[in-house]
Amino acid sequence: MIDAHNHLHDARLLPHRPTIFAELARIGVTRAVVNGTREDDWSAVVALAHAHPWITPSFGLHPWHVATRSPDWLAHLREKLDAFPHAAIGEIGLDRWIAGHDPAAQHEVFTAQLALAAERDLPVTIHCLRAWGPLWDILRTHPLPARGFLLHAYGGPAEMVRGFAQRGAYFSFNAYFLHDRKAAQRAVFQHLPPERLLIETDAPDLRPPDDQNAHPLHDPTGTPLNHPANLALAYTALARLRSLPIPTLAQQIAQNFSAIFGSGS
Fold first, then answer.
1. Residue 222, class by beta-carbon neighbours within 10 Å (0-12 exposed, 13-18 middle, 19+ buried)?
2. pLDDT tens profile 91-136
3. Which of 62, 77, 167, 172: disulfide with 198, CB 3.0–4.6 Å?
4. pTM passes above 0.90
């Protein structure tokens, strides 16, 4: 199994990390993309990538953190990518949901990172909330990496899928979509082109419904977290949605992952 998008470096997971990694090995996770979201967490992504060769590091400035960027943030990002030529860029994107968002700053930061991904032909992982129109306007008018880009935990309109796919999009399914209120998202993933599918957890965020969560996990304050081993639930759920045997789906996901993220360093 392959997790196309998570945050295994997140400090909330640190107390549980030994048991988490043992469980990921037990269920057969062979690749994972670990996404940094701001300058001060990129070093934690580096540490995990050095310790675990099956991890693909990804470095990006998330739209929630654009206000915290240093004057040299883009140079720092280039330095990380120089040190890890097989890395990805992400998590980056646009977000009109978060309070106090700055559309102009988000646009500036996102397009700069997208240009870097296109320049180096690096895979890029995109976050989007309530900004599908602005995102489309950027993707249809800016250079993009030839290998494509991932719209992680895709929650956009079904009618936009074709246009995004024509521009090189992959779409990742998350077990969070098993909540009753996410029926529209599940319907989209029933009909996506098979060659554009990926699967993710976004751990420690986007927990599946409690009644389907086989891996309950909490931070030190007692707040529930999404265990990365819920990847198995996502595989099972997507296979059921698409009426496929899990091995058939897993083979397709592996091919798709290699197409965008490569076969490993």
1. exposed
2. 999 999 998 889 999 999 999 999 999 999 999 999 999 999 999 9
3. 172
4. yes
